[in-house]
Design brief:
The protein has 16 helices and 25 strands. With 523 residues, it is of the alpha/beta class. 30% of the residues lie in helices and 24% in strands. Strands 3-2-11-10-12-13-14-15 form an eight-stranded mixed sheet, sandwiched between helices. The protein has a five-stranded antiparallel sheet with strand order 1-16-17-19-20, with no helix packed on it. The two termini are 38 Å apart. Helix 1 packs across helix 7.
């Protein structure tokens, strides 16, 4: 830390073990003690691949892509529902020096102004908006390629679309060095190796599933288990159940998912899990709520979950996923507003600045900025946004608010999550968390915003019964008044499908603001 200024440095990053991602897969395929890649797709039996299986499949697809005319540096949209196919095409791109652009299987083809004109497309359906290569099966029909042409360390490894939870999606450029730096640093800080067993249930078109877990795990050569997001959301207890069955020690999810598990307290008591191996549970991707995190630990403690397992953390697509995390501090109370996230990883620096870009003093809330090896060089083809997102010294403006205290970063929320009521700023996620404390409110479907007047709140929530009442509405009004001293002018019960969410289950605030404007005039 520099004096009393809110600046944190993670220290030097060790020399990277590989020059590019392709080398990590080739090495993992040659390891005699590497783990396997397991896909839980809702079928009676999981699909299991070795790293050598993945390398061979990727080499076959590479041959098919080259025969179709794909050249090094070309961008390849990947829109596939089958996770093994998605990963095989992703790694074919790494072996051939192509730039993969993973998409949600349900998404429309990305506009040209996001990823550039004339990309290729691997998909089961020809959309007509890109050069269609067909499905993965068509590409893997021939013999495997024998020669690879992987990218250089500073070449693009992937374009990842932002979730769009606070605006229009952008294509984040991540280089080979970005991803390898982040993976190497987190493995060093958390003592991860080929002996670990990881569990991910977030989409593999998202930075958390693809980069934070899968790419890191290939670098390690460890055992990795992937479950479909929809399968877990149908029954959140499939997550701890899968952790127990596969003896996994590392997993992650955004905060809302811990609340979904905690909501199943009655069912949890009847389980026979063994979670004693679980030592690293990353809680990131959205605001970490202390009460929810500690309730999760409390409910799963009888199954051997260590009290030090929860690691609140911070990162984003633009930092190649999580670059700050720590053990959830013991003790604390349900009334704690925020959680300390710890120090940045090696190769990463974080600071908190005022609106003019000057570093704040320790303890003062300001705008969080980040710099270092895992940080994106910018957004593809979007120089205007790049000028807005980086300051003259190369610091990336994250859009988060936070402060530094005791040598650690605390993130208080997104700048655009702040609700102004009569000139006083409140964090929307805090109000929403308070509403979800009420027993009849279902977690992760609550939205708070200012009403037309700007002097009171409008609250949208989903009732567990599916049928709200005047009594429930009044209790929401009363609870917010007692907790925050705020007036709630309107309460709107909503169906789950009316709450717009991103691919990993976060509230899509940009879409919700548009939708709610029609109801209350403005948000």
């Amino acid at each position: 830390m520099a004096g009393r200024l809110a600046v944190l440095h993670g220290g030097p990053l060790p020399e990277l073990p590989m020059r590019n991602l392709a080398e990590t897969l080739i090495r993992a395929a040659r390891m005699t003690d590497a783990g396997s890649i397991v896909f839980l797709q809702g079928a009676p039996q999981p699909r299991v691949l070795s790293y050598s299986d993945l390398l061979l499949d990727a080499a076959r697809i590479l041959r098919g892509m080259r025969d179709a005319g794909v050249a090094p540096g070309d961008r390849v949209l990947i829109r596939l529902a089958d996770e093994p196919d998605l990963l095989a095409v992703f790694w074919a791109c790494q072996l051939g020096g192509f730039v993969p652009v993973p998409l949600a299987a349900s998404s429309a083809v990305v506009p040209d102004d996001v990823v550039g004109g004339e990309p290729w497309l691997v998909s089961t359906v020809d959309s007509g908006a890109a050069r269609w290569l067909g499905p993965a099966d068509r590409l893997r029909a021939g013999a495997p390629a024998q020669d690879f042409q992987p990218a250089g360390p500073d070449d693009l490894a992937a374009l990842l679309l932002t979730s769009g939870s606070t605006g229009r999606p952008k294509a984040v450029m991540l280089t080979q060095r970005n991803i390898l730096s982040r993976s190497t640093a987190t493995a060093l800080v958390r003592g991860l190796s080929h002996r670990n067993r990881t569990f991910n249930w977030m989409p593999l078109d998202h930075v958390g599933g693809l980069i934070m877990f899968h790419a890191r795990d290939v670098l390690l050569g460890c055992h990795q288990v992937h479950a479909r997001t929809s399968w877990v959301l149908e029954d959140p207890l499939r997550w701890p159940g899968g952790l127990s069955e596969h003896r996994c020690d590392t997993t992650w999810a955004p905060n809302f998912a811990f609340g979904l598990v905690a909501d199943q307290a009655d069912r949890i008591a009847a389980q026979t899990w063994d979670l004693s191996a679980l030592g690293y549970v990353m809680n990131g991707g959205e605001a970490v709520k202390p009460k929810v995190a500690r309730r999760f630990l409390e409910l799963l403690a009888p199954f051997g979950l260590p009290p030090t397992a929860m690691h609140p953390g911070w990162g984003m697509s633009e930092t190649s996923s999580g670059v700050v995390d720590c053990v959830l501090p013991p003790g604390g109370g349900d009334d704690d507003r925020f959680v300390s996230l710890g120090e940045p990883h090696p190769g990463v620096s974080v600071r908190v600045v005022d609106d003019a870009g000057r570093p704040r003093a320790v303890g003062e809330v300001g705008r969080v900025q980040v710099a270092g090896s895992p940080v994106t060089p910018g957004y593809w083809g979007n120089e205007r946004q790049n000028r807005q997102s980086f300051d003259d010294g190369g610091w990336f403006k994250t859009g988060d608010l936070g402060f530094v205290s005791a040598g650690a970063l605390t993130v208080t929320g997104r700048a655009d999550d702040v609700i102004d009521i009569a000139g006083v700023a409140y964090y929307g996620h805090e109000i929403e968390a308070a509403v979800e404390e009420l027993p009849f409110v279902e977690s992760s479907f609550t939205v708070a915003c200012a009403d037309r007047s700007g002097r009171a709140l409008a609250i949208f929530f989903h009732s567990r019964s599916g049928l709200s009442s005047d009594v429930e509405n009044w209790r929401v009004v009363d609870h917010v008044a007692k907790r925050f001293g705020l007036q709630v002018s309107r309460v709107f019960p909503v169906a789950k499908e009316e709450v717009a969410k991103t691919g990993i289950g976060k509230i899509n605030r940009a879409r919700m603001a548009h939708n709610l404007a029609a109801v209350i005039g403005s948000c």
